[in-house]
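Researcher: Go.
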Amino acid sequence: MTSNLLEEAKSSEEWLLKVRRHLHAHPERSFQEHGTARFVEEELLRIGPMTVRTGVGKTGVVALIEGRPGPCVALRADMDALPISEETGLPYASRNEGVMHACGHDVHVTCLLGAARLLWARRKELRGSVKLIFQPAEELTLGARAMIEEGVMESPKVEMIFGLHVNPEVEAGKVAVRSGPIMASTDSFDVEVRGRGGHGAMPHRSADPILAASAVVLNLQSVVSRNVDPLKPAVLSVCTFHGGSAHNIIPERVELGGTVRTMDEGVRDLMEARILEIARSTAEALGCSASVIYHRLLPPTVNSPRAASIAAEAAREVLGEEGVEEANPVMGAEDFSLFARAVPGCFLWLGVRNERIDAVHPWHSPRFKVDESCLAVGASVMAGCALKALTALSPSR
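Model: Structure:
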C-alpha cells in the first residue's frame, strides 16, 4: 500500500503548493490560529466527508479517517507561527505584519493534509483508523497538553503516533529517523538575588546583589562541565539579567533567568538540584540571599524503538534506501514529547535544505526558507507511517 504514495503525492503537487503558500502568507500566533483552523477544516471536508472536530485545545482541529475495525494510529502537525518579521522576499511572504512561519509549521500542516488525501483514497483498505491532529500553540509548549486534556488521544484510543518537523540541516528529498531521544527536555529557572542597597561610592556599607548575581551566573557554568557525565548532553544558559536603576546606586535586588535542556531524566533532576544549591550558596557567600523557582516545562522527545522502526521501514519503502538517514538529535524541545510519552511515537526530520535557493537558514530566522519538494515527501512518508503502523498493530487482534 506504500509503494505508490510518493508518485500520488507528486501528482497533487500543484495543490500542495497552493495550500502551503496560503498558510505561509497567513500565519497566526499561538492559540490565535482561527483562520488556519477554518482553512484546515475546509480542506479536510473537501477531501471527503470525514468526521472533523474543531476547537479542541482552544484552536485545534481533529479528524478521523475510518477503515475496517482495528487499531487507531495518529498523525500530528502543529499550526502556529512566530512573532518574527519575514525577510525572505518571497512572493507569498507573510501578509500579517510581525508574524511569520519561521519554523515550518505551514509545511507540517500541508504534509498532514496531503497525507489525509492519500489515506482517504485508501480508507476501504485501512486496517483500523487514522486520527489527524492539527495542534495549536507548539511554540508556547502548551498546545499538546491542552489537546490531551480534552481527550484527543481517546475515542478511539490512539495506540501509536507519528509527527515530523522540517530540518534545514537535512537535504530536501530525504527524511531522518532515529530510535531514542531526538529532542531535549526544556525547563526554565528564575533567580532573585536580594542584597542591601546603598551608594555606589560606599559599597562596604551595602550587600551588592549585582556582584552576587554575577557570581551566580559564573558558578552555574560549572554545573554542566563539572557535574554532568560528559557522555550525556546538557545545556544551561542564563539568558536574562535585570538589576539596578542608576550608575551610582547599588540596588536591593537582581533578577536573572535561563533555560535548561537535557536528554536524560536523571540529568534533568541533577540540573535542578545543582542550580538551587549553587544560586543559594553563592549569594550567601557574598552577603546576599537567593530564591529560585525552577519550571519543568517539557520532557525529552523520545522515539520508541518500535515506532521508529516502523517509520524507518515506511520511509524506505516510500523514498528508497537513499532517501532515509540516521537522525541527529538536537537540544531544542517539542511538545510532541507529551504525545510520545502517552503512547509509543516517532518524530522524524523532514529535509528542506537546498543551497541553490538559499534554503539553509536555521529555525526561527527571518530568512527561513524550504525547498517545497519536501511537501510530497512529507505527505507520502506520513501516510506510509500510518499504513505501516496499522498493519503492525493489527495482528495482535
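Model: The chain is about 35% helix and 25% strand.
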